[in-house]
Amino acid sequence: MLWSDPENESPKELRDTQEMLRRLGVLMALAMVLTMIVIGIR
Length: 42
Known about the structure:
By secondary structure, the protein is mostly helical. The protein has one helix and no strands. It has one helix at 12-41. The longest helix is centred in the middle third of the chain and has 30 residues, at 12-41. The chain is rod-shaped.
């Protein structure tokens, strides 16, 4: 952060983005597991 930024303030957009990325990571992991299972069944 820059020295001119206000202290003790985490931008809401940043927190929202981090939460979205966390959810996206979980969804990607689940999709990979499902893909492996489907490939294994065939």
